Input
Amino acid sequence: MASLLADNPQAVKIFLQHRMACVGCSMAKFETLQDAARIYRVEPSDLAADIQSTLALSDKNVNLEGENMAANSTYFEDLLTTVEVIPSESIVSRTILQDGGLKVIVFGFAAGQVLSEHTASVPAIIHILEGECEITLGSEKHSSAAAGSWMHLPPKMPHSILAKTPLRMLLIMLPPQE
Output
């Protein structure tokens, strides 16, 4: 949601017409178009059609759940370019793949930004792509996680991040364990 709105500011009026408060919502960073449609009880295909027609986008650009991102594979020459601009005092995210229970998100943090302690209901992998941060995983504090740092989090592990420098990281949310 956040990337659609950031890349297409004219989409704001579409969401407001559907009485969707996604504009300015902090959760928009983490939700797909389909997630938001479900929350507001809007037919996802109708919302996608409105966006496509209003913004003159092709089908591949309006993505409900990531299923249209690639037919057989997904390839990025450089993940850093998926979040090129990080506004000051902001955290930006781009979902680059959603396939079943797997969700892959690239985050960009401006220096000094904090993702306060929270948990995820599914296992996750964090890979620092660029920059330096302090990351707390459960009771372990890693004060200088930098490019190349990689970590696995089991479900429900409290974690937080403080960007010491501009930071880009990859978050892979794995399917729930059975």
User: Anything to note?
Assistant: The longest helix spans residues 44-55. Residues 115 and 161 are 5 Å apart (CA to CA).
